[in-house]
């Protein structure tokens, strides 16, 4: 068998050599050579891609590991041991209140910059904490949308008159009055409550500075031409253009409303109905105005009527609150008094929180202390009785 296989291989080699005498042999060998080279290249490319995929996977693992470590640290700061951060945040809030007043009086031309810095300091913290507590759908609410409009006007479209007037109406309208509606409280140690006050009070304050504090200055003409032109047009036309403002503001409002209900109310309806996610509608109906008789009657209506009525009331609320904007636009003193009133409401709510919460805690401590003293007295009386016996 071995000798036969050796002979067969010899004949095969001989016939292989005879193939070289074929006139087409060079072409055939060239094709085979190219096929082998192509196969080698494919193998090489595949190995290179595999190596790149492995490197990419390693990089993803490293990034995820760093993100997990960062998440652990942030979770420790904001949830597990928030006391340390709150001790730092308390003086930070007081310093900001002082800085806001100082800039309004001495450096109003950089107030919008300060607002922007605070926005990008506080909102990422709000986004993280809300995401971790499954409340991140609140970030799609109108107040954040109006803050976005304010930033767009400041940094992208300072010459857009319709955007400016709509931003003025929404900030002095819905945002300012929301402090009362949502019962915002200026609790100076709480990043959550301070951020809520910030997103409702700072935009109208910033627009107030741009409109009134910088009134008729070269800086206003050059940096915010829409403000200067709007004031000139309104002066020439004899008053606040209510109908025009309602039209443009309604367009911006409609853009937000449609986007919100498509991406949140409709596409995330399963999570909302199951209670996995919370929205403004759910919070207002189940917490803020839970015990209102009229609201209970409206909520008993079949779907989608409660939501449609909520949209209608929200839009009417917007129209009513912005109807006074002509006063705030024409008179800087009236605008100042209005904003001061909103700030005082937030401060009063904050004082109520401190007194009710910490006062209640102090009362509980005193009650526990008194109970302990009573137990000690009772214990000593029992010991004396036993000694007498």
UniProtKB/TrEMBL annotation:
<dbReference type="GO" id="GO:0016746">
    <property type="term" value="F:acyltransferase activity"/>
</dbReference>
<feature type="transmembrane region" description="Helical">
    <location>
        <begin position="88"/>
        <end position="106"/>
    </location>
</feature>
<dbReference type="GO" id="GO:0016020">
    <property type="term" value="C:membrane"/>
</dbReference>
<keyword id="KW-0444">Lipid biosynthesis</keyword>
<keyword id="KW-0808">Transferase</keyword>
<comment type="similarity">
    <text>Belongs to the GPC1 family.</text>
</comment>
<feature type="transmembrane region" description="Helical">
    <location>
        <begin position="112"/>
        <end position="131"/>
    </location>
</feature>
<feature type="transmembrane region" description="Helical">
    <location>
        <begin position="308"/>
        <end position="329"/>
    </location>
</feature>
<feature type="transmembrane region" description="Helical">
    <location>
        <begin position="335"/>
        <end position="355"/>
    </location>
</feature>
<keyword id="KW-0012">Acyltransferase</keyword>
<dbReference type="InterPro" id="IPR021261">
    <property type="entry name" value="GPCAT"/>
</dbReference>
<keyword id="KW-0472">Membrane</keyword>
<keyword id="KW-0594">Phospholipid biosynthesis</keyword>
<feature type="transmembrane region" description="Helical">
    <location>
        <begin position="163"/>
        <end position="182"/>
    </location>
</feature>
<keyword id="KW-0812">Transmembrane</keyword>
<feature type="transmembrane region" description="Helical">
    <location>
        <begin position="138"/>
        <end position="157"/>
    </location>
</feature>
<keyword id="KW-0443">Lipid metabolism</keyword>
<keyword id="KW-1133">Transmembrane helix</keyword>
<dbReference type="Pfam" id="PF10998">
    <property type="entry name" value="DUF2838"/>
</dbReference>
<dbReference type="GO" id="GO:0006656">
    <property type="term" value="P:phosphatidylcholine biosynthetic process"/>
</dbReference>
<protein>
    <recommendedName>
        <fullName>Glycerophosphocholine acyltransferase 1</fullName>
    </recommendedName>
</protein>
<keyword id="KW-1208">Phospholipid metabolism</keyword>
């Amino acid at each position: 068998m071995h000798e036969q296989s050796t002979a067969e291989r010899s004949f095969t080699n001989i016939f292989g050599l005879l193939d070289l005498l074929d006139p087409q042999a060079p072409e055939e060998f060239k094709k085979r050579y190219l096929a082998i080279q192509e196969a080698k290249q494919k193998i090489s490319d595949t190995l290179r891609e595999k190596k790149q995929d492995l490197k990419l996977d390693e990089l993803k693992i490293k990034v995820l590991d760093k993100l997990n470590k960062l998440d652990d640290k942030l979770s420790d700061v904001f949830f597990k041991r928030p006391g340390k951060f709150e001790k730092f945040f308390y003086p930070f809030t007081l310093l900001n209140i002082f800085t806001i007043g100082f800039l309004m009086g001495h450096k109003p031309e950089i107030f919008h910059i300060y607002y922007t810095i605070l926005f990008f300091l506080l909102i990422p913290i709000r986004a993280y904490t809300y995401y971790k507590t499954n409340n991140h759908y609140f970030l799609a609410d109108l107040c954040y949308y109006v803050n976005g409009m304010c930033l767009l006007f400041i940094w992208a479209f300072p010459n857009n008159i319709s955007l400016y007037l709509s931003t003025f109406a929404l900030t002095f309208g819905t945002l300012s009055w929301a402090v009362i509606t949502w019962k915002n409280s200026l609790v100076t140690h709480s990043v959550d409550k301070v951020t809520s006050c910030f997103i409702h009070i700072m935009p109208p304050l910033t627009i107030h500075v741009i409109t009134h504090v910088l009134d008729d200055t070269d800086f206003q003409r050059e940096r915010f031409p829409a403000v200067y032109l709007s004031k000139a047009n309104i002066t020439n036309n004899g008053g606040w253009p209510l109908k025009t403002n309602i039209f443009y503001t309604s367009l911006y409002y409609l853009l937000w409303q449609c986007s919100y209900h498509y991406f949140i109310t409709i596409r995330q309806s399963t999570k909302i109905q199951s209670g996995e996610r919370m929205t403004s509608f759910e919070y207002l109906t189940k917490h803020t105005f839970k015990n209102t008789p009229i609201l209970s009657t409206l909520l008993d209506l079949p779907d989608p009527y409660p939501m449609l009525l909520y949209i209608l009331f929200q839009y009417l609320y917007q129209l009513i609150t912005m109807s006074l904007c002509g006063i705030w636009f024409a008179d800087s003193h009236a605008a100042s008094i209005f904003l001061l009133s909103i700030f005082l409401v937030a401060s009063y709510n904050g004082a109520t929180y401190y007194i009710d919460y910490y006062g209640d805690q102090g009362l509980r401590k005193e009650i526990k202390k008194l109970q302990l003293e009573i137990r000690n007295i009772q214990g000593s009386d029992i010991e004396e009785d036993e000694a007498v016996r």
